[in-house]
Amino acid sequence: MTPPSFDYQAASPGTLLVVDDEPSVLAIAAAILNTADISPFKARNGEEAIEVLRREHDQGRRINIVILDLTMPGGLSGFETLEALRKIDPTIKVIACSGFFQEGALELCQSIGFTNILAKPYTPDSLLGLIRRVQHEAPVPARTAPEAVALAAEAPHQSPAFAAATGSTDIGFEPAFEAPLLGEDEED
Question: Strand, helix or coil at 49?
Answer without folding.
Answer: helix
